[in-house]
């Protein structure tokens, strides 16, 4: 991780949501393990690491592949339906993670263009965010969800599509389509992409940001690192790794510094 590298001057910022801005990953873990427990199963963090950042159905299929001896009724649809009802009861209790409100409000106050790109379904986003106006009102509707129908071919992370849609549709930037290495991305579009900063907590999301040609600040859960959830197994590497959003220093990236009193 390039902790001391020369930083590019950032002109816009795109955030992931689950596990980065809010503690919703806790709910996913609790509910899933409550469903698995009667069958003597558990979603450990080494399993969970492979689910993070994936679209809902793809993540569910990956999870259940670890438990082939579950009863026949325990299908992907069964799991998602029961999990959804249990989660819905808990989403209003999720809280912002450390540093999230301060950073998002700071960028918004200084008119830095920001957007949110989440693998959550739109209905889930609404349930998770409706009680957290101090955080999510700052995005002013600039939110891309997995099921909005805006992502090319419905490709989730680690493909960069969701970040590119956020930049183009909501921030009105000409970033083109596809990975930055692909030949049809123009030099001008690459320059625009290089001015963007992505905040992510999951490895697939970090990969997606790098494949978009943007800088990435990776804020992984300590539990992910404890099970070997490092980035050594993937080609892409974050530009900066932090333990918390509280540790982010905006002026290192050419962004307005925090007010010392804030």
Automatic annotation (TrEMBL):
<dbReference type="InterPro" id="IPR023198">
    <property type="entry name" value="PGP-like_dom2"/>
</dbReference>
<dbReference type="GO" id="GO:0016791">
    <property type="term" value="F:phosphatase activity"/>
</dbReference>
<protein>
    <submittedName>
        <fullName>HAD-like protein</fullName>
    </submittedName>
</protein>
<dbReference type="Pfam" id="PF00702">
    <property type="entry name" value="Hydrolase"/>
</dbReference>
<dbReference type="InterPro" id="IPR023214">
    <property type="entry name" value="HAD_sf"/>
</dbReference>
<dbReference type="InterPro" id="IPR036412">
    <property type="entry name" value="HAD-like_sf"/>
</dbReference>
């Amino acid at each position: 991780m390039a902790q001391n590298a020369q930083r590019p001057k950032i002109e816009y910022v795109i955030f992931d949501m689950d596990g980065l801005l809010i503690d919703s990953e806790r709910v996913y873990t609790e509910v899933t393990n409550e469903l698995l427990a009667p069958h003597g199963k558990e979603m450990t963090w080494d399993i969970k690491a492979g689910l993070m950042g994936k679209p809902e159905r793809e993540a569910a299929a990956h999870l259940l592949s670890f438990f082939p001896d579950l009863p026949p009724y325990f299908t992907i649809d069964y799991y998602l339906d029961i999990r959804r009802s249990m989660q819905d009861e808990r989403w209003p209790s999720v809280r912002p993670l450390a540093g999230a409100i301060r950073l998002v409000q700071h960028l918004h106050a200084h008119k830095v263009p920001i957007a949110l790109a989440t693998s959550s379904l739109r209905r889930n986003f609404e349930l998770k965010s409706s009680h957290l106006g101090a955080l999510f009102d700052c995005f002013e509707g600039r939110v891309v969800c997995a099921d909005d129908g805006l992502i090319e071919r419905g490709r989730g992370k680690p493909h960069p599509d969701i970040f590119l849609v956020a930049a183009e549709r909501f921030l009105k930037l000409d970033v083109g389509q596809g990975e930055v290495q692909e030949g049809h991305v123009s030099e001008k579009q690459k320059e625009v992409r290089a001015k963007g900063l992505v905040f992510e907590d999951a490895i697939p999301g970090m990969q997606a940001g790098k494949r978009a040609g943007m800088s990435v600040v990776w804020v992984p859960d300590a539990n992910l690192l404890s099970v070997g959830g490092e980035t050594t197994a993937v080609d892409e590497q974050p530009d900066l790794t932090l333990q918390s959003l509280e540790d982010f220093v905006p002026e290192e990236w050419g962004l307005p510094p925090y007010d010392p009193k804030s």
